[in-house]
């Protein structure tokens, strides 16, 4: 036993001395803090947009058909498009804003500069709808109900009958517009990079004194905008030169380059089985050593998992939500509503044990305290009150449960037993089963119920052994106190 305790102590010392310091140093850097806090500004719009996404694509077919027939689906989709579907806009503004605010300067001009830069660095046009509709592989022309009324081949053959000037005009990209594609999930990594770089550059120039200082008599609101003029002008000018260079030499733009070279590979990595298992293991791993695992992993993964959610939302809106059509399995809702279901470590099984099977006073008491928070996916009373932190008796189920739930959830989606998550961003405090229905319909609600049973089955044997130890300690303490009381009474 001594050797075991010694080895545990040595391992804990290694983690605390060698692993956690660089991790925490990274998490607390200015860019990561800006990313973490800046993304919060997108959450209200993502959640509000999710409500309209549900209404436009109601999970009960008969209701969905009635909503579509009434014409309200188009209005719900409009609200979704103006909130959830432009999440990269909120990220670009929020991240630069937080970065500069944390540096102690007026932050809104930096956020707006970031937004201008985000627009400037993308090509402001969209492909002609006819270009994608033409040819054997084209989509053809569809009506409001989504039915093809003219095939791609028919479109091509009919356009070929037109004069070449008119044909060219009809197939030319539509310019002078903002492409919604880059305002949603596909532009997220670019928005993060732009937000961080703009925040850093803007702060550096203000710190260096690159600003126009007006007399004291000028109102502060006016003077503040002149303070922002030089940093904003420099950033926008440099961004224009970058856009011009990439357009001239690469025939593309920065957002497309970032998506192709960086975001798409990283999203693929985050959406893999290996990625899901690593995330599921690291959340409780960090918590075991007293560090907020959800905060760390959320800061690292949100920039990839939130775009995965957005991609699935777009497929849901288009009625094409299948893995075969490119739906992601691992999304931000996979993280919130499976890996962290009922709290880090998926501790609902431990709650059930404490309420119905525990014999020790300690577990019974803490179980009653944890019951209500657990319903809303909060388990700090267990993490620090039980405790789960640095508790070797419960380490195995604490690590194992989220890994097994992530593995099994990935596989049931991959093999089509349950559908992919629909892109609805249910708040992370949404109770289990309800959240399952919102993010994936009745099948996902049933699967979420099964994961709760899994948690109970995994935790029970370990909790039973730990409870027996606590009970024996309590009995020994009670016996010692009784003996001391008897001795005092005899002495009296």
UniProtKB/TrEMBL annotation:
Subcellular location, record wording: Cell membrane
A GO term, aspect molecular function: protein-N(PI)-phosphohistidine-sugar phosphotransferase activity
Keywords annotated in UniProt: Cell membrane, Membrane, Sugar transport, Transmembrane, Transmembrane helix, Transport
Start and end residues of each PTS EIIC type-3 domain: 15-462
Membrane topology: Multi-pass membrane protein
Domain of life (superkingdom): Bacteria
GO CC terms of this entry: plasma membrane
Protein name: Cellobiose PTS, EIIC [Lactobacillus plantarum JDM1]
Source species of the chain: Lactiplantibacillus mudanjiangensis
């Amino acid at each position: 036993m001594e050797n075991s305790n010694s080895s545990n102590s040595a391992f804990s010392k290694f983690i605390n001395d060698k692993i956690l310091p660089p991790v925490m140093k990274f998490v607390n850097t200015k860019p990561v803090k800006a990313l973490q806090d800046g993304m919060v500004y997108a959450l209200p719009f993502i959640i509000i947009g999710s409500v309209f996404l549900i209404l436009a694509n109601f999970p009960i077919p008969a209701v969905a058909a009635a909503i579509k027939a009434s014409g309200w689906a188009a209005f719900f989709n409009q609200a979704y498009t103006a909130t959830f579907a432009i999440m990269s806009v909120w990220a670009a503004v929020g991240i630069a804003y937080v970065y500069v605010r944390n540096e102690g300067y007026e932050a809104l001009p930096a956020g707006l500069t970031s937004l201008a830069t985000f627009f400037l660095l993308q090509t402001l046009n969209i492909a002609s709808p006819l270009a994608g509709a033409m040819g054997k592989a084209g989509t053809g022309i569809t009506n409001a109900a989504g039915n093809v009324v003219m095939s791609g081949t028919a479109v091509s053959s009919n356009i070929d009958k037109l004069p070449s000037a008119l044909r060219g005009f009809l197939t030319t990209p539509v310019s002078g517009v903002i492409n919604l594609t880059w305002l949603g999930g596909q532009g997220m990594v670019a928005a993060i990079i732009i937000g961080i770089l703009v925040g850093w550059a803007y702060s550096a120039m203000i710190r260096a004194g690159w600003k126009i200082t007006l007399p004291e008599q000028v109102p502060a609101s006016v003077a503040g905008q002149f303070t922002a003029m030089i940093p904003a002008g420099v950033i926008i000018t440099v961004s224009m030169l970058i856009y011009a260079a990439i357009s001239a030499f690469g025939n593309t733009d920065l957002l497309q380059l970032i998506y192709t070279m960086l975001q798409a590979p990283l999203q693929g990595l985050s959406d893999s089985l290996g990625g899901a298992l690593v995330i599921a293991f690291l959340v409780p791993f960090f918590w075991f050593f007293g560090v907020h695992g959800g905060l760390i992993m959320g800061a690292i993964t949100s920039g990839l998992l939130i775009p995965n959610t957005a991609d699935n939302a777009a497929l849901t809106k288009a009625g094409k939500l299948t893995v075969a059509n490119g739906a992601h399995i691992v999304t931000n809702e996979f993280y919130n509503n499976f890996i962290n279901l009922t709290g880090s470590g998926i501790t609902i099984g431990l709650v059930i044990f404490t309420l119905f099977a525990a014999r020790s006073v300690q577990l019974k008491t803490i179980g009653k305290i944890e019951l209500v928070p657990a319903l809303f996916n909060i388990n700090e009373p267990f993490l620090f009150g039980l405790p789960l932190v640095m508790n070797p008796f419960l380490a195995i189920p604490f690590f194992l449960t989220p890994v097994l739930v992530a593995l099994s959830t990935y596989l049931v989606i991959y093999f089509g037993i349950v559908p992919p998550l629909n892109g609805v961003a249910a708040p992370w405090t949404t109770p289990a089963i309800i959240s399952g229905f919102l993010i994936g319909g009745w099948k996902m609600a049933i699967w979420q119920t099964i994961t709760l049973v899994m948690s109970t089955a995994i935790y029970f044997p370990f909790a039973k052994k730990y409870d027996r130890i606590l009970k024996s300690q309590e009995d020994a303490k009670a016996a010692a106190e009784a003996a001391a009381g008897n001795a005092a009474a005899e002495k009296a």
